[in-house]
Design a protein that fits this description.
CATH topology of the largest domain: Aspartate Aminotransferase, domain 2
Radius of gyration: 22 Å
CATH class of the largest domain: Alpha Beta
Mean pLDDT: 91
Number of strands: 17
Structural class: alpha/beta
Largest sheet: 7 strands, mixed
Strand order of the largest sheet: 4-12-11-10-7-5-6
Distance between the termini: 49 Å
Strand content: 15-25%
Helix content: 40-55%
Number of domains: 2
Shape: globular
């Protein structure tokens, strides 16, 4: 059966009233609500139904949180089972059957060499809390305060996490070039650009006059998400592992958005075959509910009791939902499915780019896809076009498709559909995106022509 969008219903009084009260009551910090003025009331799988009666295909998925889409039956059943059992819902860090089942399932998904000698710390409740815990962990274990991170990274919104990619000043943090093929910091791209980025890192660490604070760790995303869906080359990741291992610098892999099958392997580090010292996990591991953990080498477990944990680290409903999600993704080989379907979608989007000069680059891994929109101009690459990207997002919304923006100047349209996406749904997503892109492009051309005429 084809996935079609019904004619939009007239906005209801409730719909408009809720949006109005939100704008009057909520903080200016709200983000998604500004670009996506919808009021979800029901959801299942890929589909959200708004209070205005319209249905939307959700390729935001809670910023990558919903590995199985909205309200998947295995997740709902796991939550109901805990609720019906009478078990306490809040347990701090006490041992419970629910936590034991979650931890067992989590360790079953890890790369075997990593799982054999690993410890898990439950943080609470967001990915940024887990990042803070990971930074504290490696600094405590090594006795060194310096930290290596990468341009374009996003690791959260708490003070320590914001300092890592440059959102806040911290003299202890050194930001290194990330191999961004389309906008290579060295102007070369490809294998040469990645090699120069690795060599820069190596030379900086080995130069006694660099002024580099003694690094307690390196943190990186195997695929930069908020940075614009930029996959790290596998060879470069292996070099980072070699460089850090040779200098006894713990390597932290931030898998908050890339984990649980999103990129076509269960954990994105598996593409390159590296074994990090620490993995940061959140979003999908809670099965749509708040949960964050770090998993790390046992010899790094030197923290004092109570270090970077949090009151809500014992979220039993999230652990039950998370265990069900992890098991379903693993048992049904949804990571393999994401790899196959994602490659097909990337190929079709690259074909679309050939007919649209405003598409500068199409990239991604698995069902983590980015389309960078540019203003065709002299120079290579062309400058980002954030206005066009915002217009495409709105044209998508008007066609019943929810997408996110990110990357340089928010000019990258990001697609993060659930791993349960069907072939038929993928076609509908791409059809709506292509139509929205054409409409936004036509409007931009008319505006530019009108400006030139005047």
């Amino acid at each position: 059966m084809a996935v079609t969008e019904p004619p939009p219903a007239a906005p209801t009084v409730a719909h408009e009233g809720i949006l109005r009260r939100q704008s009057l009551r909520e903080s200016a910090a709200r983000t998604y609500a500004r670009a996506l003025p919808i009021v979800p009331v029901r959801a299942r799988g890929l589909t959200i139904e708004g209070a205005d009666g319209r249905r939307y295909l959700d390729c935001l998925s809670g910023a990558g949180t919903l590995a199985l889409g909205h309200n998947h039956p295995v997740v709902l059943e796991a939550i109901r089972k805990v609720l019906d059992s009478g078990a306490p819902l809040h347990d701090l860090d006490l041992a419970t059957p629910v936590k034991d089942a979650f931890t067992t399932e989590l360790f079953a998904t890890l790369p075997p060499r990593f799982a054999r000698d690993a410890r898990v710390r439950f943080c609470g409740p967001a990915g940024t809390d887990a990042v803070e815990a990971a930074l504290e962990l490696v600094r405590t274990a090594t006795g060194r305060d310096g930290l290596l991170s990468f341009t374009g990274a996003h690791h959260g919104t708490t003070a320590g996490a914001l300092a890592v990619p440059g959102g806040a000043e911290d003299a202890r943090v050194i930001r290194l070039p990330y191999p961004y093929d389309y906008r290579c910091p060295f102007g070369t791209g490809g294998e040469r650009g990645a090699e120069l980025a690795a060599r820069w890192t190596e030379d900086l660490l080995d130069d006694p006059g660099s002024g580099l604070p003694a690094p307690g760790g390196m943190i990186l995303e195997p695929v930069q998400g908020e940075g614009g869906v930029i996959p790290a080359p596998d060879a470069w990741l292996r070099r980072m592992r070699e460089i850090t291992a040779a200098r006894s610098i713990p390597l932290i892999a931030d898998e908050v958005q890339t984990g649980v099958g999103r990129t076509g392997t269960f954990w994105a580090v598996e593409h390159s075959g590296i074994t990090p010292d620490v993995m940061v996990m959140s979003k999908a591991i809670g099965g749509s509910l708040p949960l964050a953990v770090i998993v790390y080498r046992a010899d790094l477990d030197t923290g004092r009791p109570g270090a970077r944990t949090g009151t809500f680290r014992g979220n039993q409903l999230a652990m039950a939902a998370g265990a069900a999600t992890l098991a379903h993704v693993r048992e049904n080989r949804l990571a393999d499915r994401a790899a196959i379907l994602g490659a097909r979608m990337l190929g079709q989007l690259r074909g679309l780019a050939a007919d649209h000069p405003c598409v500068g680059d199409v990239r991604g891994r698995g069902l983590m896809i980015g389309v960078e929109l540019v203003a065709p101009a002299a120079g290579d690459p062309a400058p980002p076009d954030p206005a066009l990207a915002a217009a495409v997002q709105q044209e998508c919304l008007s066609r019943g498709l929810i997408v996110e923006l990110g990357g340089p100047q928010a000019a990258v349209v990001r697609l993060l559909p659930p791993l349960t996406l069907t072939d038929e749904q993928a076609v509908a997503v791409l059809d709506r995106f292509a139509d929205a892109l054409s409409a936004a492009e036509r409007t931009a051309l008319r505006r530019n022509y009108s400006g030139l005429s005047s």
